[in-house]
User: Fold this.
Amino acid sequence: MTDDAATAALFKVYEIIAHCINLKGNYKRLRQEGKKLKAIRDAIEAEISKDKITPATREWIAKVKMVESEVKDLKTKYKNEMGHPWRLVRIWAYPILGVEMKEKYSQVHSLWEEGNLKREELDAELPEPVRKRHAAKIEENSSLHMAVQDLLCFLEDEQITRVGVWGTVGTGKTTIMQNLNNHEQVAKMFDIVIWLTVSKEWNVEKLQEAIMRRLKLDMECFGDVEKNARRISEELKEKKYLLLLDEVQDFIDLNAVMEIHNNIDSKVVLASRSRCVCYDMEADELINVMRLSPADAWNMFQEKVGHPISSPLIKPIAEQVVKECDGLPLLIDRIGRAFRKKGKNVSLWRDGLNRLRRWDRVKTEGMDEVLDFLKFCYDDLDGNKRDCFLYGALYPEECEIYIDYLLECWNAEGFIHDADELVDDTNAFRDARDKGHAILDALIDVSLLERSDKKKCVKMNKVLRKMALKISSESNGSKFLVKPCQGLQDFPDKKEWEDASRISLMDNQLCSLPEFLQCYHLSTLLLQRNNGLIAIPEFFFESMRNLRVLDLHGTGIESLPSSISNLISLKGMYLNSCTRLIQLPPNIRALVQLEVLDIRGTKLNLLQIGSLIWLKCLRISLSSFFRGIRTQRQFRSISAFVSLEEFCDDDDLSEQCWDEVLKIVMEEVVTLKKLTSLRFCFPTVDFLKLFVQRSPVWKNSFFTFQFCVGYQGNTYSQILESSDYPSYNSLKLVNSEGTHPVIAEVLKVTHAFKLVNHKGVSNLSDFGVNNMENMLVCSVEGGNEIRTIVCGDRMTNSVFKNLEVLHINNVLRLRSVCQGRIPHGSLAQLISLTLTKCPELKKIFSEGMIQQLPELQNLKVEECHQIEEIITESENLELEANALPRLKNLILIDLLKLRSIWVDYSLEWPSLQRVQISECHMLKRLPFNDVNAAKLRYVEGQQSWWEALEWEDDAFRQSLQSILHLQIAQP
Assistant:
């Protein structure tokens, strides 16, 4: 072999060895590039639906799949070569395989680059995960901010799929929704967020079109409703999405729109003026957006106005401006913008304030848009609901209006349609009241009226009231003369009286009324609580033949003029608390349409109203009659009121000398066959027994009652009137003893039960647990013999399974709420538990009890000085982490020995929002952290207690500073 041949041979060997080395590198690079290509192909296919793949993309995907198959073949060939037993002999094949791999790598890389470009194009064509909305900034820890935080918590809860946000126009629902849409936490939770503003003229097709455009689906393929729903569902099938629906006014069938039932991981949040719409949409949780607190309203106004508000000359005026906005964010926003333009000119600010106070009569910048929003709510009502809403403006700003009274006025005015046209008019008055409740609930649902803190009252906010008065002033047939609480000493101009269809001059200082008036159109006259009004002119009522509601209660009148006989259309007359009223004219019998008469607290007697036998509702004070001539004849007249459906007397009639007369009264009452409601105080159980055994209405399932048995001194007459549950059948036992059979019978149909200073029982179980299945509210006060509320020993059936509220106060010998293990299902609906002034109480949640309280939302313990643990560790060793899933409010006050709420951080507090602790100085640790109490929004306590607390996580302590409200102890 020549040197050249040897060199060539060596070079060939070297080349073969080099190809061997390159073969491994080419294989490695090809495999990596193949993975990249498959990943981008999978991503493109995952992000687009089949009907959106362009022909070019479809061709690229086909090439990729073909190349992937060829790469797979090369991988197989490489593995075969590397595993061949004669691979050293076959080394000559390596260069060919290496070249194939190198060429295939170039092809794969080229397709990957092409796919990368398509991915960029696709990102532009695909819907972005979140479309940011222009959202007003909300202050941290404001009520709007808290609502957003609550929504975030609901979205994280796997058990909650739909949330309803409701409240009146202008309270900030849309602002909350916009901030939720933009929240970074939402972007992390969901693949896509879909926002829809639902117009009044919405239909399924319009909603589908909006969703398909948001998803960037091909609109040329827009088909029928079912086909569109399938396309939307298919597009969202692999995505976790959040659907935000704003301004929802009616039920929307989301299954018809988008087959939403196919995606169980996604959520819906809707905002509506109507609570009922949220219920209809099957919301799992509701957030009622109320008006802003004064502090939040001021902060928002400051932000809108800016620097001028810092002037000491401007600030007092600005505070009045904020007050006029009545906590409505929409109004604060518009008014704030308008006042910002006024700079620091005090005159302009004063003029603006004056105009704002009179915006229902003069044009005011910033109000037009708000008025349009509010007017929209009014226009959306049915005719009779509009009248009922406007009627609320007759009462002062923020006035608490008794619901029963308001419904009676509506009925008297004829707003409750069909009340007189019922097929069965046996109980027409009650049926009208029921219809009135339906209207009231509808107005509350759209937030045109609000429930007050007292459940028996409603109120209208200042802005809506002004709108109602403005609407009334522009109406030809329903003008109001409304001047309550203005300190009037003289009656308004005569022409104002005569033009008005409804007049409200309540709570003034009127001492006289006009002698002659031409008030032919007047239907309501409200003069209550004009204490100085002691006489009504003889001919005052002469022209008021259309008057339907007359309220004179709380005035100083001693009699009514004979012209009262002209009120032939009058349906409701309120004379209660006219303490000087001693006489009615004989021609009172001319009031043939009168249905409601309230003479409580007057000096009238039954004989003076005995001719009004057509009355439907009568409220009297029998004790007032006893101050006059006590003849049996006047009480025999009660049975003459044969049409009476509602009878009320809640006076103190317990003096022994009246027992005989009371027996006559009760014998008369039991003859009333049309009674649907009775409010009465029985001096003893025997009188209650007389009614239950002899009244034909007692067995009627629609009969309602508020009964009190016993005597409690001066507070007796307010017992039933102060009830927060006016629609419930209620029974109150005061200073009674034992368990009389008639009490057991009444308890079977009682919803609210109060026991005061009772003797002869050691626990409520003594009354018979089966007799309390319908009880919703229970209150126990005083007494030295009660040791426990429920005795679980030998009990097999659940007890208090429908009870929602349990209040225990001043029960001196109480040792526990429950004794022994109570059966499953007991207390399962309990929402509120309050324990106050029980000096021997040591255990709240005894053995297993806490596991029975899935609905408990409010827990208050006060002045129970033996309590050491809220949840007793020794009796709850196997306590589950979610023992109190709905507890929202925890209030602990003056618990001198309290050292523990719970021993560690093992419990979850998923709903806890408010914690108030005072005078609990031995409590050194809290069982909360940022994980188990994420919804905590308010912490209150004394500064010395807070500073002495021990913390494992200082970061959590710091995070609570923004929601902390400290009290400085008084020296």
Observations:
- The chain has a mean pLDDT of 84.
